[in-house]
Amino acid sequence: MMTYDVLVAGGGPAGLSAACAAARAGARVALFEKSREFGYPIHTSGGSWVTPLRALGIPERFMHFITEGEFIAPAERALFCYQEPPSCVLDVRGLYQFLAEHAAAAGAALFVHTPVVAAHYEKGRIAGLVVRRLAGREVVIARLVIDATGAAAVVARGAGLSPGFR
Questions:
Q1: What is the mean pLDDT of the chain?
Q2: In the chain, at which end, N or C, are there fewer CB atoms within 10 A of the end residue's CB?
Q3: Of 111, 124, 125, 118, which Cα lies nearest the Cα of 147?
Q4: Do 86 and 49 meet the contact criterion of CB atoms below 8 Å apart?
Q5: What are the Cα distances from residue 54, in Å, to 2, 50, 91, 130, 134?
Q6: 165 falls within a domain
Q7: Which residue range forms the structural domain that includes residue 64?
Q8: Considering the domain boundaries, does residue 25 fall inside one?
Q9: Which residues pair with 29 in a beta bridge?
């Protein structure tokens, strides 16, 4: 049975960022992602504001800047041109892989094609995760579990903390 300080369910930007931060703080971290690779399939358009991305240290190579926008109404049109683009469309796959590289470099163990099936309980508390691996289901133990599975809310819904989306 594997044991870590922190387990992260979900390999999107929230999960990868949490795994990276915890590993940088010295925790033994494992992250489980159901897809075969980070950033696939993509479930977002990638439209984002530039200022927060820069504040987070996201490299501009992942930003495709929106330098102009046109609004069209039945009777009018308006064209906006920006010297300093306020928004961009992200290279989502590239960004996720960048975040995964940073989490791994910080020391987090990253497992792809390993869906989280449920939370594992001991003495009435979440004490880990049940994951599905090629060899079957496996229990992984940790002091802290982070549910970053997005709308699926795999751990939170199983714990009765979230109804999930319908």
A1: 92
A2: C
A3: 118
A4: yes
A5: 37, 6, 15, 36, 39
A6: no
A7: 47-90
A8: yes
A9: 6
Amino acid at 158: G
Are 32 and 100 within one domain?
yes
DSSP summary character for residue 27: -
Q: Are the C-beta atoms of 94 and 39 separated by less than 8 Å? A: yes
Q: Is the pLDDT of residue 164 over 70?
A: no
For residue 57, which of 10, 108, 21 has the smallest C-alpha distance? 21
Judge if 119 and 84 occupy the same domain: no
Instruction: Give per-residue pLDDT as tens, 123-132.
Output: 989 999 999 9
Tell me if 131 is assigned to some domain: yes
31 and 107 co-located in one domain? yes
Any domain includes 164: no
Widest Cα–Cα separation across the chain? 67
Residues 34 and 62 in one domain: no
Kindly report the CA angle at 108 between 33 and 16, in degrees rounded to 5?
50
Lowest mean pLDDT among 14-28, 67-81, 150-164: 150-164
Residues 73 and 126 in one domain: no
Q: Check whether 148 has a pLDDT greater than 80.
A: yes
Listing from the earlier edge strand, what are the strands of the sheet with 116-122?
109-111, 29-32, 2-9, 136-147, 125-133, 116-122
Task: Count the domains in the chain.
Answer: 2
